């Protein structure tokens, strides 16, 4: 009898783990990102390595609009003028900093879509996910849920020849209806090319909001650090989306 009780408990625990993943996927499916949205997007970037004397830091803002006709991006005249002035100054003196140019280089269509349609980004992350922990918590005094996933890292055949280890974990915090409030992704990769060893770590955090049928990443921060060829580097980008 005891054996069957143990089996029943293990089976029930397995169902709870499976249900957590299913619940999150079902909640994300409620945000197809079809309704129109307007927002101001500000991106800030900071990067440094052993060779540079001073870190590089940049910041820029743009206006975006997404809807039935697609994605529209508006670069204000002052932003363009500032970037052009920095580019001219760098031509005359390569040591000149170009903070606006640095930030604008990281603003592209895929990053903007990821901010305005965060549900699809999370759904893709869950493709190779295994739920490891599922707990009830409180956020701001309200019932919430926090799920921790192990992500199986998929590599191309070419990359797999060089990567020695790759780990990734995802923590998603949701409200009582399983709609994401925030998320945290950590990854670590070790690779070897010929006689050179490379290591890289990444830490990403998101805070989510709603706009119609969209789950929007109103705040996103990506921190990366690593080493290779005798050099160390670190950088971070912070993206803020202000809904109109």
What does this structure look like?
The protein is an alpha+beta fold. It has one domain. The chain has six helices and ten strands. The chain has a ten-stranded antiparallel β-sheet. The longest helix is centred in the first third of the chain and has 27 residues. It is globular, with a radius of gyration of 22 Å. The protein starts with a helix and ends with a strand. About 6% of the residues have low confidence.
List the helices and strands and how they pair.
Elements: H1 2-28, E1 37-49, E2 56-67, E3 70-74, H2 77-92, H3 99-105, H4 109-116, H5 118-125, E4 129-139, E5 142-151, H6 157-160, E6 163-175, E7 180-193, E8 196-211, E9 214-228, E10 231-243
Antiparallel strand pairs: 1-2, 1-10, 2-3, 4-5, 5-6, 6-7, 7-8, 8-9, 9-10
Sum this structure up briefly.
The protein has about 240 residues and is α+β, with helices and mostly antiparallel strands.
Name its key features.
single chain; 244 residues; alpha+beta; 10-stranded antiparallel sheet; 10 strands; globular
Question: For the residues shown, what is the average pLDDT?
Answer: 91
Taking the alpha carbons of the first and last residues, their distance comes to: 62 Å
Series of H and E elements: HEEEHHHHEEHEEEEE
Q: Total domains, how many?
A: 1
Please describe the biggest sheet, giving its number of strands, its sense, and whether it closes into a barrel.
Answer: 10 strands, antiparallel
């Amino acid at each position: 009898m005891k054996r069957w009780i143990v089996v029943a408990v293990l089976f029930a625990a397995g169902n709870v783990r499976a249900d957590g993943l299913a619940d999150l996927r079902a909640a994300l499916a409620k945000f197809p990102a079809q309704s129109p949205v307007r927002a101001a997007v500000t991106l800030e970037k900071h990067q440094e390595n052993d060779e540079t004397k001073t870190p590089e830091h940049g910041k820029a803002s743009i206006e975006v609009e997404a809807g039935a006709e697609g994605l529209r991006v508006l670069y204000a005249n002052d932003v363009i003028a500032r970037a052009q002035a920095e580019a001219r100054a760098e031509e005359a003196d390569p040591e000149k900093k170009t903070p606006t140019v640095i930030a604008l280089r990281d603003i592209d269509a895929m990053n903007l879509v990821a901010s305005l349609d965060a549900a699809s980004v999370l759904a893709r992350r869950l493709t190779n996910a295994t739920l490891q922990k599922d707990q009830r918590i409180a956020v701001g005094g309200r019932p919430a849920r926090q799920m921790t996933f192990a992500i199986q890292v998929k590599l191309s055949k070419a990359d797999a020849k060089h990567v020695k280890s790759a780990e990734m974990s995802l923590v998603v915090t949701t409200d009582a209806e399983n709609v994401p409030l925030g998320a945290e992704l950590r990854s670590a990769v070790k690779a070897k090319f010929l006689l050179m060893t490379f290591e890289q770590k990444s830490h990403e955090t998101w805070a989510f909001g709603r706009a119609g049928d969209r789950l929007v990443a109103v705040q996103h921060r990506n921190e990366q650090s690593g080493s290779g060829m005798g050099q160390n580097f670190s950088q971070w980008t912070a993206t803020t989306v202000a809904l109109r």
